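debug: dumping io for the single-chain case to check the tokenizer round-trip. Nothing else runs in this session.
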Amino acid sequence: MQRGRRIAFDYGDVRIGVAISDPDSILCSPLTTLQATDKKLDAQIAQILEEHEPVQIFIGRPALLSGIDGVATEKAKFFADRVAALTSVPIDFIDERMSTVSAARNLRDSGKNAKDSKASIDMAAAVAILEFALEIEKRK
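debug: decoded output
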């Protein structure tokens, strides 16, 4: 596995959770939550990419539970196209069907109110996507 940071995005209509790995891809940490409708979204993403210089980008693929692509999948693909226009770093989709549900459950289990922690849930979902992506990479 190539050494370097990896970044994951959990795209949503309102918020986009962002997570990052350390250069050795051992630890995944929440980075930030972006507002999906912010007029400066592309500039914010470009700044994150420039600052952290990832070697790989992962974007959650929100398929339906059956595995079939839905409207949310198309939105994530459109978002991936926006990110691709900002960088030459490879972008891969990662199945994220249960990432947000599991992130909300983990926050609830730690005593946090999921309703008051929406930004935290989005970042935690991005961490889950990144951890899953790293597991896949390490198996290759």
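debug: round-trip ok. DSSP finds four helices and five strands in the chain.
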